[in-house]
Write a structure and sequence with these properties.
223 residues, alpha/beta, 5-stranded parallel sheet, globular, binds adenosine-5'-diphosphate, binds zinc ion
């Protein structure tokens, strides 16, 4: 039996983690697991953790490791993750990376690869400011870089309602970029030391990055 792949996408806000994770789900049958999405669901549900997280997310800082690890562990316990996962936006701190290693060790697993999406910070401000998603299925779009084929209609589900994130503004994104560089970028060294780091130039168009990523995932996670 092959052990399910555990892939990590590392990169600042706007790097394309969510966009590419959804395409990796289609291309490789993996399951996207986004702590940002899980936290936004907790905020929408109005749980205690959600209320605490909301205040932090609005400032562009990182939610506490305790809250994030609790929701992550709960999600990792669900059966569909047995197909292999793409972690999008997790881990973001060294505490989270160590906790992930411990969680995986419990089932004899380890991180298959951590893929660092390398981009220019300045370009990320425009990517984040122009981001919007389908309210029905979560498909991501961009004002300039990714339009639905029929204006106003989601390519994936035919929905016509779209939404924008409250934290996707020029002020908050600068705080999120800072948090990335101080707290998350050091994980590049962490995974490099474990021999599982892959770096890709993520400044091309979406289809180009998809094929670059596909060749890495095909090599490291082929069943
Ligand atoms: P992340 O999950 O890393 O924050 P997203 O995947 O949500 O980033 O992408 C941010 C925004 O940029 C979205 O609106 C998306 O449509 C767009 N986008 C993603 N990848 C690219 C790319 N390679 N070139 C241009 N725009 C992109
Ligand atoms: P992006 O990729 O655009 O930065 P995310 O959806 O991954 O957006 O994250 C949005 C916000 O949710 C972050 O700014 C942070 O406040 C919080 N968050 C998401 N994942 C984590 C995590 N692993 N640890 C701490 N905070 C997180
Ligand atoms: Zn949709």
């Amino acid at each position: 039996m092959t052990t399910p792949a555990v892939l990590i996408l590392l990169g600042p806000p706007g790097a394309g983690k969510g966009t590419q994770a959804r395409m990796l789900e289609e291309d490789f049958g993996l399951v996207q697991l986004s702590t940002g999405d899980l936290l936004r669901a907790a905020v929408a549900a109005g749980t205690e953790a959600g209320k605490t997280a909301k205040a932090v997310m609005e400032t562009g800082g990182l939610v506490s490791d305790d809250i994030v690890l609790t929701i992550l562990a709960e999600r990792m316990g669900q059966p569909d993750v047995g197909r292999g996962v793409i972690l999008d936006g997790f881990p973001r701190t060294d505490v989270q990376a160590a906790a992930l290693d411990a969680l995986l060790a419990g089932t004899g697993q380890r991180v298959t690869a951590a893929i660092s999406l390398e981009v220019d910070d300045e370009a990320m401000v425009g990517r984040v400011a122009g981001r919007y998603t389908c309210a029905g299925c979560g498909e991501g779009y961009h004002d300039e870089f990714k339009h639905p084929a029929t204006p106003g209609v989601c390519d994936k589900c035919g929905g016509t309602a779209f939404k924008r994130r409250a934290d996707d503004n020029a002020v908050t994104v600068r705080e999120r970029l800072k948090a990335y560089h101080t707290q998350t970028a050091p994980l590049i060294t962490y995974y490099d030391a474990r021999g599982v780091l892959e770096r890709i130039d993520a400044m091309g168009d979406i289809a180009t990055i998809r094929s670059r990523l596909g060749s890495i995932v095909g090599r490291v996670a082929a069943h």
